[in-house]
């Protein structure tokens, strides 16, 4: 006989988050490899590394925005990042079971999405398949601070856009320009992760675990500070989604909101 608890587990949400995170990592890190891998033709087409970082960040952000607008976003809200899920949890928008399920799905999806990156071969290995690492000559404290600042900025902007109904539907549009600027300015410092899942996937397949803790502690600290700074907006955020705020499945989010406030 099927356990009643298993019937209540929102598997569709978790599968959707796994798929969304896998797509973000696969597409986003393929862009990193294409732009910066050894032997890439992009180095000849766009000699300026600054410009390539700007373009890469914009396209990475566009990938995340596209996932939010896709069926993935309609089903699960397209968090595709553990710190986004935990921010919604701290604001009382998700129950504990759903939070753990999302984070597990995101971490699993990141590893699944990173595995096909091995097909890039030597070009991918030359940049550790897009692994986030502190820049040359950058101290660990500086790299950590970079992750705190960039994640704080990202989560704060999410809270502001989601907190005001007249700009809420534009939430996915913040990602392309935001990541264009952050990757251009901050990638040489820490790699601009802002996402523990995004850092975990390429670390697993490349074996590059140097200073791995930065990409957990930094984003988590930045998220926590952003939630504190934007706590006045928590009641204005209705569902734990980045788009599709009024779809039928939102009823589940509203139920977990009602029962899952910390």
Span between termini:
33 Å
Query: What level of helicity do the residues show?
Result: 55-70%
Outline: globular
Number of helices: 14
Care to count the β-strands? 0
CATH class call: Mainly Alpha
- State Rg: 18 Å
What share of the residues does DSSP label as strand, in percent? under 5%
Could you state the CATH homologous superfamily? Glycerol uptake facilitator protein
Q: Any guess at the CATH architecture?
A: Up-down Bundle
Nearest-integer average pLDDT:
92
The major sheet is characterized as: none
Structural class of the helices, strands and pairings? mainly alpha
> In total, how many domains does the architecture comprise?
1
Low-confidence stretches: 1-6, 258-262
Instruction: Determine the CATH topology.
Output: Glycerol uptake facilitator protein
Run of helices and strands: HHHHHHHHHHHHHH
Model description:
This protein has 262 residues and is mainly alpha-helical. The protein has a single domain, classed as Up-down Bundle (Glycerol uptake facilitator protein). Helix content is 68%, strand content 0%. The chain has 14 helices and no strands. It has helices at 4-8, 11-36, 42-45, 49-69, 71-76, 82-90, 96-114, 121-125, 140-163, 165-168, 175-190, 196-206, 214-229, 250-260. Helix 2 (11-36) runs antiparallel to helix 4 (49-69) and helix 6 runs parallel beside helix 13 (214-229). It is globular, with a radius of gyration of 18 Å.
Give a brief rundown of this model.
The protein has 14 helices and no strands. The chain has helices at 4-8, 11-36, 42-45, 49-69, 71-76, 82-90, 96-114, 121-125, 140-163, 165-168, 175-190, 196-206, 214-229, 250-260. The model is unreliable at 1-6 and 258-262 (pLDDT under 50).
